[in-house]
Write a structure and sequence with these properties.
The protein is an alpha+beta fold and 140 residues long. It has two domains: 32 residues; 96 residues, Sandwich (Immunoglobulin-like), CATH 2.60.40. Helix content is 16%, strand content 35%. The strands form two sheets. Strands 1, 3, 5, 6 and 7 form a five-stranded mixed beta sheet that branches. The longest helix is centred in the first third of the chain and has 22 residues. The radius of gyration is 26 Å and the shape is globular. The relative contact order is 0.22.
């Protein structure tokens, strides 16, 4: 009997609240589904890495799940290389970033991911520092 009274009271309270919200122009909405993982920004088709470091460099493109593209050739300070993501076989919408390899030095990941879109745009990173202490930073 007490349970029935409590259920009736809860139902009445819910109905009153719903009616009151309706009077205010507020409509109760069902809970939204959890959002899917957002793509990284910006969305680009090509990735360039400028060598501003005191070493010889090459790089590959890597995804969030560790897939790798073929490496570029080695290049020196004040030079750059460009990878068109169309040539990598990665699906559009994949988040990617460069993985730089300094000759006789460390491997360093780009500081942020970008998303692959076949739109002709380029994300440019700068590799700067020394073989054992450098950063790969997104510029554009």
């Amino acid at each position: 009997m007490i349970r029935t009274a409590l259920r009736n009271r809860a139902a009445a309270t819910a109905a009153f609240a719903a009616a009151g919200l309706g009077l205010l122009g507020v409509v109760a909405q069902p809970a939204a589904a959890a959002p899917t993982a957002a793509q990284a920004s910006p969305c680009v088709q090509k990735i360039a890495v400028v060598n501003n470091g005191g070493f010889v460099l090459n790089f590959q493109i890597t995804t969030r799940d560790g897939q790798l593209s073929a490496p570029t050739d080695d290049y020196h300070i004040n030079e750059w290389r460009l990878v068109d993501l169309v040539s990598t076989g990665f699906a559009e919408g994949t988040d990617v970033r460069p993985l730089a390899h300094a000759t006789a030095g460390d491997d360093v990941l780009g500081n942020v991911f970008v998303s692959y879109c076949a739109n002709g745009q380029t994300a440019t990173y700068s590799a700067s520092g020394t073989t054992l202490n450098y950063k790969v930073t997104l510029l554009t």
